[in-house]
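Next up, sample data:
>
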Amino acid sequence: MGLLLRVLCEKNIPLLVHFKPSRRRRSVGVANATLPHFLTTPPTLPNASTTPSPDGEGEEGSKVTLVVYAKESTVISNLRHFTSYQIEIHACNHPTDPQRCSMATYVSARTMPEKKADDIVGQVTHEMVSEHPESVHIKWLDPKAPNGMIILYEVNYKRLGDLEELHHCVSRKAYTQIGGCRLRVVHPGNYTVRIRATSLAGNGSWTEPTFFFMPDKDTTSLKIIIGSVICFILLLFVGGGVFMIFKKKQTEGPTGPLIASSNPEYLSANDMYVPDDWEVAREKINILKELGQGSFGMVYEGIAKDIVKGEPDTRVAVKTVNESASLRERIEFLNEASVMKAFSCHHVVRLLGVVSKGQPTLVVMELMTHGDLKSFLRCLRPDSENNPTGKPPPTLKEMIQMAGEIADGMAYLNAKKFVHRDLAARNCMVAEDNTVKIGDFGMTRDIYETDYYRKGGKGLLPVRWMAPESLKDGVFTAHSDCWSFGVVLWEVSTLAEQPYQGLSNEQVLKFVMDGGYLDKPENCVERIHNLMSMCWQYNPKMRPTFQEIIEMLKEDVHPSFQEVSFFYSEENKLPETEEFDLDLENMESIPLDPSSYSQREDSDSVSRDNGSSQNLRGNYEEHVPYAHMNGGKKNGRILSLPRSSPS
């Protein structure tokens, strides 16, 4: 740090310059250049070395002498940052003869502040205050060499999920007393805190956010006191028998373990959630940043310690449940974790652990860096704002790879007797290496709420992905999952356009139940479209299984598929079953709807023509079936749909 000093004088005249830190250097102000005013006083005898000044001691009283020859300016270096200096200048004919020096001229100047001098270095720590359960003690270190002096500290903190930060100002005196500050935190939960210092020169930088957890208040003592008083009163008036009954009821309060059932439709008293081998200690989870909003709460990226064998630190996705969530929502949140504990497949997102002790409840999942497949596909559109690098849409080989990976995950779920019921691009996740996996079940319903429809006051239904039998009778099977798989293929081919665009949910519901299905996407290759059509057979039993779909695609998937897929695993080697041949040429074509059996025609005429559609009668049971419903050729044409456009 230095000052540039310019003096108007004749050349070849030596200058004698004395300078020392001003006693006013800690006054509030902004760093400035040389002040424009000069004070002239009777000459004094300058010293040729550093000497203490009579008006002070130590650093503020020391005086440094500098002799400058034949110059009109000089730079005084090695000064302290943001410090005021008083400079005394004499013009001398000879530096050793003070009688031949001019009268002194004085000037005051302040050095510039240093940019990072006010930043707080070191770690911000916290500890709970035992005598005050609602308080947390935040500690940090003073900046080593601030600009001037530290006036105050600003402490901003908030609970995770809240939008606004709470502000707390800490004076210099308050910081000195306890080496930090105490925050009064009323509501339990996870909090972040960040701090910055304010000096005479201005504000320093904010520290990185530090996380701390505020547990629920310990009300055990209060409950014991209240219970004792009540029991004593009952003993006086009712007697020992009534007292025992009351104690029994008192222990059966509304609080207790959450119920978690693997079947989301039913809850049983036997389905208590008990921590098991999947339980992870809360201190092993370090939350890094927010990833987005899930249907139950926020989703964060974090680091988990020793959660995967052989990996000391693992990047994970941490899902939370809102603190305002109802008991039912908490149960559903644990239901999802309970379901996924039974799954171990490369093409199904893995559950890594559960933190059920304390609040909030956390579910630790495998991190899928590219998010859900729907958002991933939309980012690959040429006109997408989220595609600055201009990544091209997926090639045919990449589409087949995606289809094979999704089919393998669904084949695994089918082998586990699990029906997904909500297969869609939004519920598939994309890993860092672009591997597509069946996502966490039920977690995206709130995010893509427009993809769901409430039918007749019942729960939300993804009608645009549902099979006819599911829409009509509420039947969900592996066959209905296959229909949804065909819609996912359509989403992949259109880069996640909305299915049946231009139709309302009610129109889609009637359209599909009447035998309609999606048009062939623009520029879609015949091979992919043929696979879609097979999945959209009206008769559920005519649709292929996921094992059969992989058989069709296995020649064109990446060789690594054999090493990681369920299809090629030992687990998939089932005992041999009795085989039978189908005489497809002589097979009688029977419609799914028994009432329309009398209306079918010869099985040779199952191909669609370009003639006009038959008028449909009012009752659905009387509808003439389409060709893909195993009906006659006159009804082989699907209902027309408006051409989908990018959404």
Remarks:
- Residues 396-415 form the longest helix (20 residues).
- The first strand starts at residue 3 and ends at 6.
